[in-house]
Fold these 4 entries.
Entry 1:
Amino acid sequence: MKKVIFYLIENNQDIENNQDKAPQTASPDAVDANNAAHADGVHEPITHKTAIHEQLACEKIAEAWQARTRILVACQDQAQAERIDEYLWQLDTDHFVPHNLAGEGMKGGSPVEICWPEKRSNSNRQLLVNLQESFPSFANLFHDVIDFVPSDERLKALARERYKAYKTVGFYLKTIPVKVSDNSSQ
């Protein structure tokens, strides 16, 4: 079964606003990004250049690599790909993730390859981590996809469109809320 896990990023402001509308019940496997990251030692401070969903993506990439999963990270553009690359290089040695930008590194690529629309690998991967704003046309090549719903309203609307597209092509969808603090920026 093909499946997509959407991480719904909620900051404290979003949670306070939603409490006035309807009671919120988190799924049993909901993750508090700050606590989970600190617990497994992967957490790194967010730089001014790294958005919350990019940091969370890197944490999920590190977790998947620990399980020896081969991963394709689909970025919106080369600048985002380079931010993800830099973040992964900054992880402590206990959580090192062998990775490269598409077209670099050894033949066949590293276990984790970071691409963008103008530069995509054809290597076989098990997991797609999608950071692109639109539905990736190659998503059907994967059985497992991780995607994100940032709290920014424009990006949230684009995530809704991707959600519909994944559903249309037959993916099973699961959403996991992730709480972040107010002082984090998108």
Note: Residues 153-168 form the longest helix (16 residues).
Entry 2:
Amino acid sequence: MQKSDLNLSKNYRLRQSPLFLIFRVIGLELLFAGVFFLLGYLFLEEGVAAYPLLFFVFWAANIILLLSIFIHWYFVYYIISTDALSKHKGFLFKRLKTYDLQSIRSVRVYQGVMGRLFGFGDIVMESPLLHEMIHLKKVQNPLKHAKIIDRQRLRILEDKDLSNITPVI
């Protein structure tokens, strides 16, 4: 990726990879199917009228959990702006946490084998001023977004250094 490929004047939105949404949905469906059939096999006799009730209860719980998984995935995202990184979280009760890019010392990317294959990973930023590590977990294209964060951070530091210089007349 060339330096000119990144537009540092626009905001970038990133969220957890959709692959994890799919993994969670498949895992939930397998769990519900297994528990449903296990309970039906162990506790219900053939022809018992409670079987449709069990099916309805599992169906309703499944829909509620599927919606909560999707809402959590959709309403937790990060915005990289020209001077800050913001974490937006929440559906009914919105929370916003903003980190000044100037306070970030280093940006690192961690990707496992699956992350390299499917294009996701973790971005970890160190902020000694805040005394904490900032983690962006399982985001799409972590290398691209880490470069954007790092370039924005360096641009801010360069602008700050240049603003301290008094012009010679």
Note: The helical segments are 18-43, 50-74, 113-118, 142-163.
Entry 3:
Amino acid sequence: MATEKTVKEKAPEKATPSKPIGRRPGDEDRSETLVRIMGYDIAGSRPLYVGLTRIKGISWAVTNVICLKLKLNRMKKIQELTKDEIKKIEEYIPHMELPSFMRNRPTDPETGESGHFLGTDLEMKRDFDIKRLKEMKAYRGARHAAKQPVRGQRTRSHFRKKSMAAGMKKKKGGSA
């Protein structure tokens, strides 16, 4: 007797409704707490160590100095900070004493002094420096004016914009 093998047919799968991309269950109820420090809105869910880097001019190393000097826990969430702690941070940041190697402006070309700038002051200093380089007709100023890389990067395959000429072009004809 021959035995027959029965093949079970798969039932067609039912279409599942697709979930919106980038959403997690419970997102509708969650609202983000924003804490304002030095004029910057910082997400309350971030740790203090990460959140302070959102302030322009404050790096990871400077954030570490702030946390150590003020004796704050680096992993404490921003939303868990008390008003006194936020006030203490805001009072300390403009007058913090940093070693010269950690400052974002080690020597000012006009005054020769070193300083650490934050926010719009830092942006203005950078813009004035670029303007000064263009006025002196320094090589770096010319590169800024041409919207080309300033620090010696290669330009054959990168830094191309639609309005700029492309690097190498192929010849259109026969042999050369």
Note: The CA atoms of residues 40 and 55 lie 6 Å apart.
Entry 4:
Amino acid sequence: MNKFILLAFFSCLFFTAGAQALFITKDAKINFNSSTPVEDIVAESNQATTVLDIEKNVLKFSVLTTSFKFRRALMEEHFNENYMESPKFPKASFNGKIVSAVDWKSEKPASVDVQGTLTMHGTSSEVTFKATITPGKSKITASAELKVTPEAFNIPIPSAVRDKIAKEVTIKIDAVYAPYQQ
């Protein structure tokens, strides 16, 4: 019986200590921009879920592709039905690591390198990008920008609209993480 109580105590201690290393947000902002001389296509979602493990420097995020909002309803419809095929591929995700050293006790912004796998439209591609992380006592803020090509994710672009969609699409991510509470 005493061994069981001791095991339960150390299990709780382990999971509590681990939880303090986890930070989460369910309302990270992801914006993408495809600018050409013919047309600017801009969309934003503030419904991305992201987890940051500061012990392992692991970063993950996921966003429903239908959560992106556009200036025009027709753009949103084409994005979800024709390009992202949202019913078939409902989310985009990133699974990676911060590969630069981070002083998580500092409250100063740090420029870091992030590497990992970005998955969209059922296709995964390795990406590397810069991010700015600002640790804090009760929150961590992070922002990043990366460029991707539709071709890298097998997103079909018909020749009739090729001039309206940038060869490289800019993705911006902003997140404010809070400690994970079990």
Note: The chain has two helices and nine strands.
